Amino acid sequence: MPGSWRDFREAHPCSAALVVEVADASLEYDRDRKGSLCARAGIADYWIVNLSAGSIEVYRDGARSDKGLYGWVYRAVQHYGRGQNVTPLAAPERAIAVDDLLP
Description:
By secondary structure, the protein is an alpha+beta fold. The chain has one domain: tt1808, chain A. About 15% of the residues lie in helices and about 35% in strands. It has helices spanning about 25-40, 100; strands at about 20-25, 45-50, 55-65, 70-80, 85, 95. The strands form 2 sheets. A 4-stranded mixed β-sheet has the order 1-2-3-4. A two-stranded antiparallel ribbon has the order 5-6. It starts with 18 loop residues before the first strand and ends with a helix.
């Protein structure tokens, strides 16, 4: 099974299947700076747990763009609220309840 401890006996992983940020005061920083860096690094699934809005922001489909702080942006952005589920790209059979990620 990919991602099990056996896959990393000889070396550390070189990329992440999913990056999740928890943001309140750092929301704009996470959207602009970290989002652009994650898109540039090829992270296919970047989520922000937006504490002030009580939602999950899901960023996908990274692409080069002059609009991105580091030359990259995510072209697809979806927002999920309480009562909804979000599914990671790396595990499409595993829906996660937004309520489980929010305080």
